[in-house]
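Q: What does the assembled structure look like for these inputs?
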Amino acid sequence: MSPRILDEESLHARELELLDTALSIIEKEGVAGLNMDKLTSCVPYSKGTIYNHFNSKEDLLTGICCQGMRILTDLFSKAGTFAGSTRERIMAQNLAYLLYALLYPNRFLLVISVMSPTLFERTSERRREEIQTLETELLGTVLTIVDESIANGDFTLPVHMNRKQVAFANWSTSFGTIALLSNDTESCECRRGLSIGCELFNSINLILDGLGWKPLSSEIDSAALIQQLLSEIFIKERLMLESKGINLDLSAPAVAEKNHSK
Amino acid sequence: MSPRILDEESLHARELELLDTALSIIEKEGVAGLNMDKLTSCVPYSKGTIYNHFNSKEDLLTGICCQGMRILTDLFSKAGTFAGSTRERIMAQNLAYLLYALLYPNRFLLVISVMSPTLFERTSERRREEIQTLETELLGTVLTIVDESIANGDFTLPVHMNRKQVAFANWSTSFGTIALLSNDTESCECRRGLSIGCELFNSINLILDGLGWKPLSSEIDSAALIQQLLSEIFIKERLMLESKGINLDLSAPAVAEKNHSK
DNA sequence: ACCTATTATTGACGAATCGTCACTGACGGA
DNA sequence: TCCGTCAGTGACGATTCGTCAATAATAGGT
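A:
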């Protein structure tokens, strides 16, 4: 009267295996090249078993997306540990975002896909909740720094903005920049001459300067800071970048110079 | 020896009809609810004829997206005609973006979908070029104002940024904000309390203040400006908003107050 | 009026892929 | 040894995409 055991542990391991295999297929053949039969054939489980983990192909994609958000949250947390000013730590988090998008481009693009109703509508309730949790956690790592900087007096909350809005302005700006530039920028004439790293830090510096978040960009050497961050807390990520042959390309115009100092 | 006529004019009209019908299906049943057989049955043409216009379902979606970009470009142009300072005109263009996203949410979301490789990879070369052209045109309407403001002395180009980068910083920021908030914000806990219009103008004001683009946000009444724009150049759009029952919701914290004035 | 060359249109069909479900098999008690 | 339960299986039905051989439409030539 006691049937087979269902080991929570190995169940989770299997889900991980499925997600990893699916991602490797995507990396080889693109998102369009992934289908459930192909995944089935790449894995020692049957289709039915796969559908025990994910109730649709879309759910599987969202699952990959969740993994990515966890990676990203870890990177953000690590960025928050940098021993520097709050502004420098915010910059570190944006660098983390950039590194994530460059190191895991497929994961980042998947986030965009998941935003589209087509995908999201067909995602299981469980995983939707997971995304929410992860998003909250992610924004939380930013909020921590915002709070500290307000307490410090590094900047004063604008009259019509609260802490969450400040964190969101930062997030949406970096998201927009990376999203628009993470496709192959060469193929699009109007984006030619724009470099993802360069524009990201430009925009973020503008936002932070606009907030009056000290020290202003005119008072620090952003390019040097980024190099420092790369060699102090993102060592592993820098190596991964190099082994992928990706150049951060911040040598060009890297930061916005605040030259109006009114 | 003379076959049937292929009237360029009516061909274009038919394409328009197909695009409109497809969009209306999407509005009724969501993007997932659109399929080629359904479109065929809603239209007095056969599937083969539809495939003469669009070489895949994805191509059709991109086509709808292009229509939207044309609408958006027109709105941006109209915004550029506002008789005010360059900063006010930039604000007008961002308002145009917001109006577009609110009035044509499906079209805006489609832009996001088209960014994902799945869709874009399966789009015809012809339409990819169309998107590029439209993007260039769109960014051009922003560049015009940037150039004028530089000539005016309304702001000075930061040392490490060129005109294109300034225009792009504006574009990517508004894109990011709208993209992250145009889904139903209520369903996501971490975005609760954020209003799309509010955050958009917050972020843009931060960017423009960061650039030192005069007059600074502390020197103007952004909320009043928006009301003025709505009643002077976006009259039709305001009426459309009202008839859709959408509240712009700028009554809440509408703009960033620049209260650090160092 | 009729024929013909050319092109537009059609919709039935093949191919691909999704997701299900009736069956199989494995396991641990009785 | 038998039985009850549940995880796993993969063939199958259903859906939807995109094609293509057949058909219809047209206008000039005779």
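The radius of gyration of chain B is 21 Å.
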